[in-house]
Write a structure and sequence with these properties.
The protein has five helices and no strands. It has one domain. It is globular. Helix content is 50%, strand content 0%.
């Protein structure tokens, strides 16, 4: 039987999903009855995601320097998510209710690697018969 573990590498997480996931993890870990002292475990993550949210809300059209700073803040949030997952994996080995109550994702087959990217679906057999390219007809 495999031991459940949380994913520790969230680098493949899409840009728009970082902040909502981090807020959800902070809220669920703090409220969890299975995780002892969840508020102190999520303090660094809450601070990092608050800084990211403040930076995103500050400007609508960021300059390249602001975008670079935003990327650094995003990296900090991802690193804190990984640290929290690693800490929970160490503190609660094979305790699936505690791990799930944190709001983080369980890894497949006990691996703690990154999020797996799904492969695109194969082309259907009829796709070679019908073209999906726009028509090259010219209308006068």
């Amino acid at each position: 039987m495999r031991k459940p573990k949380l994913i520790e590498d969230y680098n493949r997480l899409s840009y728009d999903a970082v902040s909502p996931l981090a807020h959800s993890v902070v809220r669920q870990t703090e409220a969890s009855l299975f995780v002892a002292d969840g508020r102190s475990l999520t303090k660094a993550l809450a601070t990092a995601v608050a800084a990211l949210d403040a930076d995103v809300a500050a400007t609508d059209y960021p300059t390249p320097a602001q975008t670079a700073h935003r990327d650094e803040l995003r990296t900090t949030v991802l690193r804190e998510l990984g640290r929290l997952a690693k800490r929970l994996n160490l503190d609660y080995p094979a305790n699936e209710p505690a791990l799930l109550s944190s709001g983080l994702t369980l890894a497949e087959n006990g691996s703690t690697g990154g999020l797996t990217q799904k492969q695109p679906a194969p082309r259907p057999s009829w796709a070679s018969t019908y073209s999906t390219a726009p028509s090259r007809a010219v209308y006068w």
